[in-house]
C-alpha cells in the first residue's frame, strides 16, 4: 500500500492548509477546553486491546503496537527515537496514543488524514514498523480460539484483516485523558498563571488551541535535526526506506527530515511538523518529532529563545522574554494538562498470550 | 509496504471456468513415439543474454546469498534456509520459514537450479532472477520489501563498490541484486558425478550394482519416462501419488501457513475452505486437472537433499523406491488427496529387494562430492555522513 495518489496528497495538503492564515490572530482561535466524550463499543474495544498488545501481529512476531506505544512510558517510548521493526531502527519519536482518536491528521508529517483504520494498516504493514503480510496475520488470528470467540462476541463474525483494522481503532478511542487538573478545575496557582502566559505573552495558543491543544496544522519551529537518524545506519536505513517509498527525490543525500514537505512537495513546507497535542506530556518525554528536547523546561526555554534556527521558521515564533518564574509557571500549566496514567487492565491487556498456536483438532475433517 | 488482497470468489470462478472450457491436452499424453530423451552428461548451464556472467556479479552475488540483511528483519537470507551443509537445502519435512512462520513445502537444493526453466516445486517462476525476487519477498520466506532492502545495501560500502563494478550504477538496485545472486547460483552446478563420467566413457565410474540399477531405471521401473535428459528431469508436471504433509494435522503454525498459501495464491473461496492438501501446479493456470501435480525434480545431488518430495514425506532414497514400487503409495498407506489426477505412468513395479537396492545405488550415481564454499564474512554498515557534514547542513538551514 501507500503508493500515494497524487490527488490524495494535494487534497490532504489543502485540508491542512485551510485556516493556516488565521493562525496569527489569537482571538480567532478555538479556546482550550475539555475533550468531548467518545462513544466506544466495549466488546470491539476489548478485542482491539488484545490485538494491540499481541506480538503475533508483526511479521516475525517480535513486536506489538504496545512495544513502541508503551502504556508505562506514556504510550510512547521515553527515548528520542522510536524502536523500529527488528533489524532496523526509526527516525522519529513515537507519538503518544492517548487522545489519538480526537485527531483528524496523523503522523508527525501529517501524511495520513483519512482514518485510524488507515493509520493502523500503515503501522502493521510498513516494513520498518511491523512488516506484516496481513494475509498471514489473518490466518494467525484465526488460529487462536480466544480470538474466534472475541470476534464473534464483538459482532464481527469470522476474523479477517479488515476487522482487525476496525477493532484496533475502536480500542484507540478508549485511550483518552482522565482527570487532568485542567479539566477538573483543580489547577495550582502556578498553573493558572501559566495558562495566562500560554494564552497571552507566550503566544502558545496561536498553534496549541482547542480541546486537544493543537490546531492540527503544520509549522516550522526550527527543532534541530537528531543526528542519530543519520549516524546510526539502522535508523538511517528506515529513513531512506521511508523517503524512497514516499517518492521524495534525492533520498540518499537528505540530511534532514523533510516533514510536511512529504505531503505537499512544496519546498516552503520543508521542516514543518504537525502541532502535537499538549495533553499527557508528563509521561511522554523526550519531546518534538525527533525527541531532541529532553524536558518541558527545555521546551519552554526553546520557545523563550524564539524557537530554533531555520530560515523558514514560522513568523509566529519570536523571543518571548519570559522570566525564570514565568517559565516555571508555563511548565506547571503544561503539566496540568496531564491526567491519570492509563496503565491498568482497563486499558492494558494483561493476560498472557499462548506460547504456541494450538493445532486445530480433526483438521482434515473441518472447514478451513 | 505489503499488499492487502481480498477474496474475489465470483471473478475467480469465472476465470477458472473459462480455462476449463478452452481445454488442454493432458501432460502424460504428450510422450512421443521415440521414447524419452536418454540420460546425458550435464553441459554448462544456460546463461540468459540479459544477465551474462561476470566475476564482479558472481562475487557480489555470493555475498548477497549469504547475507541475512536481504530479508525483512535481517535474520533470514537465502543461505539461512538453503544451508550448504544440508545439501543447500533444509533437512526437515517442510522448510523452516521466516521467523514466526514455517514454510509449507520441502526446501529445494540450489545446486543445479541453474538448469531449470520452471522453478519451485510447482514450476511457478521461469528464471532464477524472478525466483530470487519471490524468495526474498515472500511472507514465509524472506519477507523483505524493496525499499528497506535497497536502503540496507546502500549503507554497506562494500556492496556499493561491488555493485558499481558489476552494474555501474551509483546505488545498488534490488533488481540487480537478484541478477547477481542468480549469477552466483549459476556457478553452483555439479557436472562430474559418477554418472557424468560414465556417460562420457569412463566405464569404471559406476559399480556393477549401479549399472544394473541403470537398466532398471531405464526399463522395468520406468523412471526414465520422467527423469530423463541431462538434468534427469523432463520439467513436466505429474501427480505421482505423494501424500501431503503429515505435520499439518497436528502443528498449529503449519496450519496457519497452509491456509495463508491457499489464500495468497488466490484459491476460490470453496477451495480455501475445504482443501487439506497442496494442489501444486493447479495454481499455474487454475486448472482442475493440475491438482496435486508437481514438477519432476532432477535426481542430481539428491544424496544430500533428504527428505524427499514436495512435502518431504520420505527420509531416504530407499523409502522413495518403496513408494514407487508400491505404485505411488507410502509405507503407511498414505497417498495423494487428488487421486483423479494421478499419472497412469505410476503403477506397482514388482521390483525384487535386489532390484530396489540396485536402483538406489544408481540414484546415488547422480551425486558427486558434496559442494561447500567458504561463507564470506559479512561486510558491515557504515554511516553515510560525518557529523561535520550534518552540522554544516544544520547551519545552512
Task: Indicate the topology.
The complex is a heterodimer of chains A (368) and B (397).
Chain A lengths: L5 H12 L24 H11 L12 H4 L47 H10 L8 H9 L2 H9 L7 H12 L8 H4 L4 H11 L18 E2 L8 H4 L1 H14 L14 H4 L8 E2 L21 H9 L19 H12 L33
Antiparallel strand pairs in A: 1-2
Helix pairs in contact in A: 2-6, 2-7, 4-7, 9-14, 13-14
Chain B lengths: L8 H14 L32 H12 L11 H4 L46 H10 L8 H9 L2 H11 L6 H12 L8 H6 L8 H11 L18 E2 L13 H13 L4 H6 L7 H4 L8 E2 L21 H9 L27 H12 L22 H9 L2
Antiparallel strand pairs in B: 1-2
Helix pairs in contact in B: 2-6, 2-7, 4-7, 9-14, 13-14
Structural description of this entry:
The complex is a heterodimer of chains A (368) and B (397). With 368 residues, chain A is mainly alpha-helical. Chain A has a domain at 42-177: Cytochrome c-like domain (Cytochrome Bc1 Complex, Chain D, domain 2). In chain A, 34% of the residues lie in helices and 1% in strands. Chain A has a two-stranded antiparallel ribbon. In chain A, helix 13 crosses helix 14 (324-335). The longest helix of chain A has 14 residues, at 233-246. Chain A is globular, with a radius of gyration of 21 Å. Chain B has 397 residues and is mostly helical. Chain B folds into 2 domains: 2-44 and 194-364, Cytochrome Bc1 Complex, Chain D, domain 2; 55-185, Cytochrome Bc1 Complex, Chain D, domain 2, CATH 1.10.760.10. Chain B is built from 15 helices and 2 strands. A two-stranded antiparallel sheet of chain B has the order 1-2. The relative contact order of chain B is 0.16. Residues 1-32 of chain B have low confidence and may be disordered. At the A-B interface, helix 4, helix 5 and helix 11 of A face helix 5, helix 10, helix 11 and helix 15 of B.
